[in-house]
Amino acid sequence: MTTAQRPTGFGVDPRTANELKERYLQTRGFTERMCEPMEIEDYVIQSMPDVSPAKWHLAHTTWFFETFILSNNYPAYRPLNLQYNYLFNSYYNAIGEQFCRPRRGQISRPTVKEVYEYRAYVDEKMLDLIDKLDADDALDTIRDTVILGINHEQQHQELMTTDIKHVFSMNPLRPTLHVRPEDEPARGVPSHEWLRYEAGLYEIGYDGPEFHFDNESSRHKEYMEAYEIGSRLITNGEYIEFMNDGGYERPDLWLSLGWATVQEHSLKEHDWEKFDKPLYWFKTDDGWMQYTLAGPRPVNPDEPVVHVSYFEADAYSRWIGARLPSEAEWEIASADADAEGGNFSDNFTFHPRPLASDAPSGRIHQMFGDVWEWTTSAYRAYPGFQPWEGAAGEYNGKFMANQLVLRGGSCATPQNHIRPSYRNFFYAADKWQFMGFRLARDVE
Amino acid sequence: MTTAQRPTGFGVDPRTANELKERYLQTRGFTERMCEPMEIEDYVIQSMPDVSPAKWHLAHTTWFFETFILSNNYPAYRPLNLQYNYLFNSYYNAIGEQFCRPRRGQISRPTVKEVYEYRAYVDEKMLDLIDKLDADDALDTIRDTVILGINHEQQHQELMTTDIKHVFSMNPLRPTLHVRPEDEPARGVPSHEWLRYEAGLYEIGYDGPEFHFDNESSRHKEYMEAYEIGSRLITNGEYIEFMNDGGYERPDLWLSLGWATVQEHSLKEHDWEKFDKPLYWFKTDDGWMQYTLAGPRPVNPDEPVVHVSYFEADAYSRWIGARLPSEAEWEIASADADAEGGNFSDNFTFHPRPLASDAPSGRIHQMFGDVWEWTTSAYRAYPGFQPWEGAAGEYNGKFMANQLVLRGGSCATPQNHIRPSYRNFFYAADKWQFMGFRLARDVE
Amino acid sequence: MTTAQRPTGFGVDPRTANELKERYLQTRGFTERMCEPMEIEDYVIQSMPDVSPAKWHLAHTTWFFETFILSNNYPAYRPLNLQYNYLFNSYYNAIGEQFCRPRRGQISRPTVKEVYEYRAYVDEKMLDLIDKLDADDALDTIRDTVILGINHEQQHQELMTTDIKHVFSMNPLRPTLHVRPEDEPARGVPSHEWLRYEAGLYEIGYDGPEFHFDNESSRHKEYMEAYEIGSRLITNGEYIEFMNDGGYERPDLWLSLGWATVQEHSLKEHDWEKFDKPLYWFKTDDGWMQYTLAGPRPVNPDEPVVHVSYFEADAYSRWIGARLPSEAEWEIASADADAEGGNFSDNFTFHPRPLASDAPSGRIHQMFGDVWEWTTSAYRAYPGFQPWEGAAGEYNGKFMANQLVLRGGSCATPQNHIRPSYRNFFYAADKWQFMGFRLARDVE
Amino acid sequence: MTTAQRPTGFGVDPRTANELKERYLQTRGFTERMCEPMEIEDYVIQSMPDVSPAKWHLAHTTWFFETFILSNNYPAYRPLNLQYNYLFNSYYNAIGEQFCRPRRGQISRPTVKEVYEYRAYVDEKMLDLIDKLDADDALDTIRDTVILGINHEQQHQELMTTDIKHVFSMNPLRPTLHVRPEDEPARGVPSHEWLRYEAGLYEIGYDGPEFHFDNESSRHKEYMEAYEIGSRLITNGEYIEFMNDGGYERPDLWLSLGWATVQEHSLKEHDWEKFDKPLYWFKTDDGWMQYTLAGPRPVNPDEPVVHVSYFEADAYSRWIGARLPSEAEWEIASADADAEGGNFSDNFTFHPRPLASDAPSGRIHQMFGDVWEWTTSAYRAYPGFQPWEGAAGEYNGKFMANQLVLRGGSCATPQNHIRPSYRNFFYAADKWQFMGFRLARDVE
Q: How much is the ipTM here?
């Protein structure tokens, strides 16, 4: 279980002004390219409080550059619209009051056109500023914050994807956003193997020279008992076995809160509100279907199961006699995996894919891309954690309560955005992100 | 207090095929003309469960013609989209299942463009059908239902106005939809006079030859005690006196449910959610402002107060030592008033206007148009009430619980839609329609 | 359909001091006699916000005498506990702040023993005061208020009964409070007959010399169309036919709000929360059972159906092709009925009973006692209504919104408390009072 | 910072039949002695869903012995009442259905007297069974489960205390349950010192021979960075400084969920519902008061602050520039502390007490008793965690989501119930237990 070389395929930061502009433009452009198939009406909808309209994502990521860079650094910067600071601030109390989150879908203005104008306005100023500072040899004053803004926008690319998927799934017309070729017939995936890691002191967290979030440091030691981790993700086919075995009807398999969630949702009106299957699944006479951004598809047994909550992943694990990994267990194992070749947003598919039938035995697969993987680790500060200074300090630290860490990125994550030490976090009942899981177990 | 002649200004039904087509086209066209200043984004929003997106109104009124006329009468009629029957059915259980009302603002498709195509498709078929049936001398088979559909669309024109007003009012940008000239300075309105009606047997309800709703019949006798009714609507200036006198803080002035509403809303987060002023009012350093479809305006003391609930109208009445009229009292008095010259949607102003300073004394004013007037009458069946046959029987009768009757039409009602016997109905706490009130009192 | 003589069996007010003391003691004593079978624990429970603990009823009725009589009239009156004025004020804003209603079941102190001491303390002072004033020939200063207090306590006797029934029904042990002999076998009831009343001007409301509530006056004329009213109450057996015919599954039978109530409650967790049967019914292998204060009993098809809401009574009426009566229709017909021989709380049975099989044809039955009868009349002010002066003015008038009038008293009403003009009022969805109904219909 | 000897004052399990009976009787008797000052009414109330009526605690702890011991081991055991198994099962799905938790306060029967009879019935059988098995040399078959039942009852003793405190605090009469002498005047507490622990591998968890919960094992290694921990608990006086410095108004001090909790509760109706002070505090003209089981008392600045949530403890820590300890940090430090001399339920005071002014410097104080101490550790499985077999496996493991670990016991914990490895757990917003905190910080 050793690895001959450093894992590959992770992002490297831009250094020069030209690299920085290129990365900036590439990211900003990718966001807009993602929106190309959308109708104006699609940009406006908020289908639940957690979801933001695409229009809001487009504006909020722009507001981020305006607020954290232009307003402090661009000479005599004049905001395009003074109200935008209120409308598009997400949660930065240090910046000022915020427009009420659950009402983001209730404002028709600014229009989509005006939001694109806002983007163009800020982009022009940003490029100009980079050049200006570079000329003054002062690019360092903003370089890190620009890179943060780029990473921030990449996170919102993913949210925009998962949010529009939720929006479209509510619509009886079940529209297609991103066309995807027909699936190949299922032919089974390589068998699930247990990969062993020995007890000992390990190091966890980031300590390299590239961009990373404050919550990934400091790098620190953890003593691990020996454990085994699954060689691949759990598939739809495997999950259906759990369902067919009454997995959603046996309280002994569930955490107390999970079972309460199942019970409570069983009293909901609509089938899609029940907590008795992965989100976006629905049953037809021909079997299970699932809504995808390419429209409804039959559930492919070979694909990793996606849109399951922590409660469901945990219940499945108990049913099969295993458990989920901790984030440290996951991170240690990730040293044996590459991001390269992974299924990321770069390929514009936005759906997890089956593990290749010829994937080699004895190695760990599907660690990066496809689905975020639930871990048993509560999202909390690492030893020595220091939030960033200023308003950016609200980025991560203040969410360290009641959430669980997910690892590895998904089919909606850009490849150069992910890292082994990257910590995503959601609530145990959340399902609308591209969430799946792999197993772990103790070693006797 | 007698009237020399029949009140004038009320609608007359189209009889011939040409008249029918003209009225149909006029109504359908007026709806679309109302939407001209709207951006595509504006059509999509549902700012509270009672509100429907403009897009939905446009489609639902079209669905009404399709469902109740074309599908039964047009040879081999093929719906443009089979899902529309589910998406745009409002509440007709006899027609089939309905898309969940509070989620009307969560579907981006069909697009606005597709909805307009739907309208055009149905319009073409409707005109064609009228001609065909006329040629066969069979226009009578659909004439009444077409007129019902026209009146139905006129009701939705009003709802579309009040709904988009609610949508825009939520937006911190406070957009303007219908430009309106600056207000003239307030100069006071004619004094409030009491007009007396003697005790005796009166007749109430509709019995003429023109279109009317089932809930307006049968015409029947009511014995009335002598009463007096106010010569005009209560104004903003008068209502502000009530507010300044602590009207919203004195439980003795309120119905128990009304006071509970005030209390409960005092715990809401946003100022516009408090039940301590008319809807759309907000206070600035310069005094009270109100949001109108022409943007925010200072509250004009001469204008009739609008967007007040029954609870508020009732509390004001108790404060001033009077009461609200019953619907019979209102209808009897309406025999002395004309619709002609009233402030209706026809003038594209969508806001109540002050009573002219030279309005003659001893006569009743502002009965038709401006604001719907709250009455103390619970909305219930008249003696001998028979709901219409078939699904149209669900139009009115099934709402006869917990609602109160309002009379007289508003600035968002088309003039040819209103009648003295017309019964509108809303819940006692509702405020987002153009609702106001006049006073009445017993005679010793 | 004429009646040879005035209906009999209604209460007559006490006039002399001795009569007043006797009625006072009789009423206060009856309240306590009703509580004799209760355990201390039973006095404390509030099973839903509408329900008050028995302990609270005992104290609140005492507070009424203390507040409205002793504190104004008894020389140097000292309340037993100053906090009781806050704890046991129900809703009289003019008296001061009130302890939060839904938390009445959350305070264990004062204990039941202390509440009985409070009753004894106030009783002693009340009797003393009556004697004192009588000696001074000044009994008139309090006589009317004492009679109001007695009637108030009688109303709370009924509420105490319906509340403890609700409390006990929630308990899986289904305790018995008032033992009742086994039911006789069902043998059918006299057939339902239509009794006709002709069109014309009638007088409605109270105008006699005895006690009555402010909401019963002023007596006034109403013009009535001819109508027919049912000779007896609708029975369990008849109601079961409606249920068996899918009455709870057909939206066309229901008011829109009623159907929404059915739908909404179908998503509730417990069977007794569903809106698909009368309250307190439950199905066993042996058929329908109902919880009564004498424990669970098989549903007797001959008994009047009880614990149904307005929505259910209305739906049944529509199903059978009739309607419910208005309160005027009911009151006019009541002139042909006696209270004497009715099924009231006086007999300590607390359950409706079948109409005697030999009840004479052509006459109206079961008008007084057994069950309160739903009418279609919204609870609102009669012409010339004047609320009582002072805090007692909050007794009735402020509830005139969203409630419907019920008539005739029930098996939990004392006989001398009821009158033909008596107006009870509840919300359309309420079921926990002894509520039933009879039919009416228009005459062609 | 070394400790010369093993900490003392922790419980030792009973071994012989006599010891077992004695411990059983002592525990059962202590529960009942705690209830002596209660009135019957006090046993019935449930003031919020988290609270259970005292009556329920008395019965549930009895049900535990009946279900897990008597029904499996006592020859031909006959339950006193078959319904009790449903009524008094808390959450053991493996045992069967449970009576709905939020309705525990809605059932008046069984009465308190019947519950005590139930206790006596089970006690008699339990003592009999211990003797019988001892005679057969088979005491081992139940010994561990009896000890579990005893510990279970001790946990409910604490809950009964915190629940009745919540119940009484809701009552405007603010009753006294346990009389307590007047407080001595505040004279300040020893200064707060930082005690240092060095980085290294430590062992955490239980591995001794005495009773412990499944969640305390397995004992395992953790690598710790160097840290410092506070020598004593944070006091009321210190907490008031935080409040006076605007601690509840500065979002930068709060976790996002904590701030949302503050905001949301600021819209509640009653002062005691606001999240702007410790639970049970209220302000008077004379300053802060707090409700205690001995009635209201002025807030003593020397006492440890109690009834604060994790959110508040965390905000205070951030304000002062520190953080809370992890459970491992706490447990490591606890090796330097004794339980002996601590403030436990044994002294019948039920309120935290100030640290003695002569408490020696350089040592850690108040680790056991007084208040449960919040840690930053999410409640989750230790490596190698194995839930107990059978229904008892539901005791701990299924609650491992969204809760935080608290350590050390409180003034409502029996001394022989606590251990250094003991893990209590509650939600971050919970305040009604005796919860307080001490600080920790990283070492540079």
A: 0.95
| C269 contact residues in A (CB cutoff 8 A) | 267
- A230–chain B nearest CA distance, Å: 40
Contact C256 B398 (CB under 8 A): yes
Residues of C in contact with B442 (CB under 8 A): 383-384
Q: Using an 8 Å Cβ cutoff, are D56 and D88 in contact?
A: yes
* Amino acid symbol at B188: G
Question: What is the mean predicted confidence (pLDDT) over D201-208?
Answer: 95
Distances (CA, A) of D9 to A309, D343, D417, D420: 44, 12, 10, 11
Q: In C, which residues are within 8 Å of B254 by CB distance? A: 398
Task: Output the CA–CA distances (angstroms, integers) from residue D442 to A328, A382, D199, D227, in the order listed.
Answer: 21, 11, 11, 5
Q: Do A376 and D376 touch (CB under 8 A)?
A: no
Model confidence over C14-58: pLDDT tens digits? Answer: 999 999 999 999 999 999 999 999 999 999 999 999 999 999 999
Burial of C38 (0-12, 13-18, 19+ CB in 10 A): middle
pLDDT tens for C267-276 read 999 999 999 9
Q: Is the pLDDT of residue A126 over 60?
A: yes
pLDDT of residue C444: 78
| Shortest distance, CA C34 to any CA of chain B (angstroms) | 31
Q: pLDDT class for D6, splitting at 50, 70, 90?
A: confident
**B399 chain-C contacts, CB cut-off 8 A:** 255-257
Query: Which pLDDT score is estimated for C3?
Result: 45
**To the nearest whole number, what is the mean pLDDT of chain D?**
96
In the predicted structure, residue B382 carries a pLDDT above the cut 80: yes
Is the pLDDT score of D4 beyond 70?
A: no
| Contact present, D267 and B268 (Cβ < 8 Å) | yes
Please give the DSSP secondary-structure letter assigned to residue A102.
Answer: G
Question: What share of chain A in percent tops pLDDT 70?
Answer: 99
Question: Would the pLDDT of A1 be above 60?
Answer: no
Please list the alpha-helical segments (H only) found in D204-291. Answer: 236-244, 256-265
User: Which tokens is B196 given?
Assistant: 């007396």
- Cβ neighbours of D268 in B, within 8 Å: 267
Q: What is the mean pLDDT of residues D164-185?
A: 95
* Res. A229: pLDDT tops 60: yes
Using the Cβ of B205 and the Cβ atoms of chain C, whether some distance falls under 8 Å is answered with no
| Rounded mean pLDDT, D399-407 | 96
CA-nearest residue to B266 within chain D is D267
Q: Which of D130, D153, D145 is nearest to D19 (CA)?
A: D130
* DSSP output for D303-352: SBP-S--HHHHHHHHHHHT-BPPPHHHHHHHHTT--STT-B-GGGS--S-
Closest among D345, D351, D343, D348 to D369, alpha carbons compared: D343
Among D45, D103, D109, beta carbon nearest to C175: D109
Classify domain C194-442 at the CATH topology level.
paralog of FGE (formylglycine-generating enzyme) (3.90.1580)
- Distance, CA of B89 to CA of B96 (rounded, Å): 8
Q: B140-169 and B17-35 helices cross at what angle (nearest 10)?
A: 10
Q: Mind telling me how many Å the CA of D428 is from chain A's nearest CA?
A: 8
Q: Are D229 and D33 in contact (CB under 8 A)?
A: no
Which residue among A40, A103, A110 sits closest to B40, beta carbon to beta carbon?
Answer: A40
Nearest to C404 by CA among C376, C372, C433: C376
- CA of A251 vs chain D CAs: smallest distance (Å): 7
Question: Best residue in C262, C267, C270 to probe A by mutation, most A CBs within 10 Å?
Answer: C267
| Chains B, C: CB pairs < 8 Å | 77
B365, pLDDT greater than 50: yes
Is-contact A312 A281, C-beta < 8 A? no
